[in-house]
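question for whoever is on the cluster today: can someone run the full assembly for these? two chains, 947 residues total. i dont have access anymore since they changed the login thing
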Amino acid sequence: MLIMKLTQPLHNLARLFVVTAFLAACVSIPSAYRGTYLDQEHNVELVLSMAKGTLEFKDEGRILQAGTADYSFKGFTKAIKKGRPGIFARPNAADSDELDVFWVKPNYDTLQESNGLIWFEAEIFYTRLDKDLRAKVQTLKAVHALGGTVMLDTPTESVQVGWPAGPTEYALQRISDKAKHPKVDE
Amino acid sequence: MFADFWSISGKELRCHDGSSAKASEKISHYMSQGGYMLVSRVHALLLSLFFLNSVFAQTQPADTGSARRDGRSQGESDGRRDGYSRGRSDGDREGQAQGYRDGFARCEAIERQRAYDSGYSDGSSRGNWEGDSEGRRRGDNDGQSQGRSDGQADGDHRADNDAEAAATPPGRQLGREQAEASDAREQGRADGIVAGDRAARAQALAYDYPLGHSDYKAERFREAIVNRDAFSQIAPAPLFEEEVRFGIARALQVPRLEAVAGARCNYPTSEENSACQDGYNDGYRSAYDSEYRHAYRSAYDGAFRSGADRGCYDAQSRSYSGDRDRGYNDGYRAAYDRAYQSAYRRAYDAIYPSAFRQASDETYRAVYRSYYDAHFEAARAAAYRARYDALYEAAYEAAKAEKYAEVYPGYAAQEYARGRADEAADFAARPVRLLESSLIETIPNGVYEPGEAIRFRVQLRNFADAGLLGRDVRVTVRAADAANTVVAQGEAVLARDLRNKSLTDVSDLLEVRFNESAAAKATHLLVAASYQGRAVGEIRLDVTPQFMVDVKLADEPVFQEGMETAVRLLVRNRSETPTNPGLGLRIASPSEKLEILTSEVNAGVLAPGASGVFEFRVIAHTGGNTLQVPITFGAILGGGRRVGLLETNKAYPVRNDFRVLPTSDLSTLRNKGVTRVSYKITNIGSTDQFKGLQLKVSVLGPNRDKFQVVGPNPQFLPPMDRGIATTFVVPLLAKEKNTGGKVQIEIQEDGKTVVVHQAAF
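^ ran it for u. tokens below:
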């Protein structure tokens, strides 16, 4: 009994560490960007919360929903095994205050492997977020492409995400500070 | 270790249940294991005896308390005795020594100072006396000597000045009178006459002789030209640029104390003996310590005083003659110097003035006369020379002018006539002169072009009354820039004779051609003529060869690697005639880094002075920031004649928004199998943050069908910010061994090609 009383705080501390590490690894959406946005021209709505995003193509009646993940070889390998979309984010190479965000919906039917390379086609939504912003962001620019590819190079454990020319460009306007995600059947 | 021994021995005594031999063995074994010194072995023997005694004597009740008290009492008694003895001994010895050192040092210092002071006083007295004496003597001598020296100089100076003032006026007067009585006038006149004659001759030679030449020559040139001729050598044609101290620890030498304790304690049981020994040791140590300190201090202080007295006595007994000598010397020097200086100055000042005055007056009287005589002579001589020169010069100039006027006309006429005669003789020997020369184009368009045959026209005048043979008149040409000029015909004799009193234009003489490297560089040609081997004239002709058509870049090209670039050429017709319709413009380069898509452009007809801009399409294949390769632009006329040229090897900028370079060895692509080709791509200038990149790889060359890209082709890359670089891999399969080719990678930014890189393997 006495031993349990002594170790309980340690258990709690370990749990906090794991949660913190998970959040750090997955990169959370900066608070300034959390909320609901709409691109009127394309009738597309975007909901962003701390670790989750929903993209609704209203004209198509299609919803894309995913949690945050780290943009790394292990992160993508894990995502492949789960077979689910993810919001992969990494610090921007030129500006560490910014995040490159790749929202990837993979088409694993196209997965191929050869000579150390693994690649598959994917629907990709890309945007950039400023980590240091405090005020709520009102507009968000993004691009969206259906025919993109994700390529994993196993010898170097590097990840390469890209898309063909002519992606759809979105100019998203904040319509609410709340971030209520619709329930999606998986 | 000693404590360990007692403990273990006691334990063995209590636990013993066997024979004595066994116990002895254990003790001996213990001793040998510990490696004790000799004293320790004695203890072992005593303990063995106690042990044997206890075994054979049988046992009685032990009274250890009494034994301990007795032992302690014995120990205290022994300790006090020993401590007192040792303390007095040590204190006395060390007190004596330290006291001696202190007393000696203190008294020595006092004695040394006393000796020094005594010496200083004695030295000072003597120094004072000797300094004063010597100072007076030297001051007197020096004052006398210096006073005399200065007085002599003063007397000499005064005598010089006074004598000069007195002697100069009469000296001058005498000099002038002597000059008046001299032969200055006669001598000047004689010299003037000679000079006048010489000047007249020189003037006639310098002026009238050439005048005779030129007048005669002019007269000849004014003669009427009887015959005007012109002919072509070939056919007629037009003309044109880096120790803790205190002896307690030492007295308590443990092995010796234990031996004594063993001897004092003689009880029937080992326990009592052990307690007795413990008590003895404690009592001994305590009493020894206390008594030692007291006795030491008491003995020390007395001995210290005694030692100090002795040391002081010894110090006082020594001789300090060295210190006394040092003081003597110091005192002597200080007193001597003071007394010397004072006495010296007084004696010096007392004697100097009188010595000065006496010497000055004596000297004045002695030298005045000699100075007077010298100044008198100097003044006389100077006045004489000045007056003599004036008289001489006046007579000289007058006589010279008079003589010049008298004889010049005759000399002038004589030299003039000689000049005319010599010129006449020259005309007789060289009756023909080269008067003019000019260039003649063979392509008559107002431009002396590289490659064009250039001929010459000369104008010759025959002054003779008779005709001259053409073969006696030779015309030659030399080029200043021989490396860039081809002299096809450097000399010629006239094809025809020259008639009497004639002026003849000869055209189409000689022939030179300029190389293309001479274009736009100013140079000159020297045309000369001779008559029967005697030069009759040379003329320099300045010329700048030019192409008919001026070719230059309309603007500096900025290349993009792998992408088509326009190079614009500005072409101007600088000639006086239109170009023909077949004027073609060509671009060429020996380097594979420049791929030429348009090699020739037709410029059409360009009127005189007209210009046009023409484009060539090219592709630069280089991964660097510049392209520096030889490029030649030429303007060619229909007949193949080059009429314009621009050669350049400048470094031109290569600017792409992205640069891509392979970072792995491509040579393995010649072998069968898969090669992972790594590339590094860098955003040099693109600022758009949302445009992705598309990469397409292909193999070029005759072996291209033997290769296949393994993996996605095209590949896609996410947007890259300006200044950022990243790497990617393209696996390429070579289906069989091959002779090589080129790997081409085309990078597009959101569909727009930004760089095409080729790398050979």
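summary bc i know u wont read the tokens: Chain B touches chain A at residues 674, 676, 689-690, 692-694, 710-712, 714-724, 726-729, 731, 748, 750-752 (CB under 8 Å). The longest strand of chain B covers residues 502-514.
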